[in-house]
Amino acid sequence: MTEFVTIGVYGWDAQTFFRALQDAQVDTLCDIRRRRGVRGSEYSFANSQRLQASLAELGIAYAHRLDLAPGDATRQAQYAVDEANKVAKRQREALSPEFIDAYQRECLAGFDSQQFVADLGDARVVALLCVERDAAACHRSLLADQLAHDLDAPVTHLLPSMAND
Hints:
- The protein is an alpha/beta fold and 165 residues long.
- It has helices at 14-23, 48-58, 72-84, 97-108, 113-119, 139-151, 160-163; strands spanning 3-7, 28-31, 61-64, 125-129, 155-157.
- Strands 3-2-4-1-5 form a 5-stranded parallel sheet, sandwiched between helices.
């Protein structure tokens, strides 16, 4: 059975990020970001080419699934709610109902969990990657919930504070 973890970029440094993946025994990382770059030199390890090179060194397979990244209109719906609530993206703690509805229509309505796993090959532990620190503030939590429901698969949300414990 395939297990899933989710991980963001914010709040990690390169060393603890990659150690967390190894500690969770991740063998496949599925990048579900639309833009595979992150602003700020402290997060350069998560920019696509560097990330893929580091994962290859660790023996972790990499897959990019653009079809699971929210489109501009869906992201703009969340940004509008964030702005109305005066919440910065990096401080967001939860997704808005507008975003959740739009993401489910856009990305999950025709999503096939069994095919997703089959497409990843022999993956045993898959990390779903995006940028937000907390899964509840990111679309990766919606995908993880769908996979857990459809496949009766365990999901663990990795957080930077876990790496420091």
